[in-house]
Amino acid sequence: MTLFEKIISREIPAEIIYEDDHCLCFKDIAPQAPVHLLLIPKRPIPRIAEAKNTDQELLGHLLLTVGIIAQQEGYEEEGFRVVINNGKNGGEAVPHLHLHLLAGRQLQWPPG
């Protein structure tokens, strides 16, 4: 069971800011920006490269939901970034697909 599955099942506490039937969003415990939220699907997908055709609806839901959360939290006007890490060199730390929503300051390009 991954760390994120334990958060979903409430075995590990998290500062949850959004939840629906398909996903959960909470504050990152090691933020990389003033605002750093993680949006995770409740049905585990290890990483984006392992998503299947049957995951298409869930993946679309995650992308729409991250935009809704950004708008509801007031980050839409100033801007925000959505990041999905894949694999060790991509910065993946937990093998459970998650979207990082970063905001609250001018983000640099290129990242990393």
Question: Could you give the topology of this structure?
Answer:
Blueprint: H1 3-8, E1 16-19, E2 23-27, E3 35-41, H2 56-72, E4 80-83, E5 99-103
Antiparallel strand pairs: 1-2, 2-3, 3-5, 4-5
Describe what this molecule looks like in 3D.
With 112 residues, the protein is an alpha+beta fold. It has one domain: HIT-like (HIT family, subunit A), CATH 3.30.428. Helix content is 21%, strand content 22%. It is built from 2 helices and 5 strands, in the order H-E-E-E-H-E-E. The protein has a 5-stranded antiparallel beta sheet with strand order 1-2-3-5-4, with helices on one face. The longest helix has 17 residues, at 56-72. The mean pLDDT is 95.
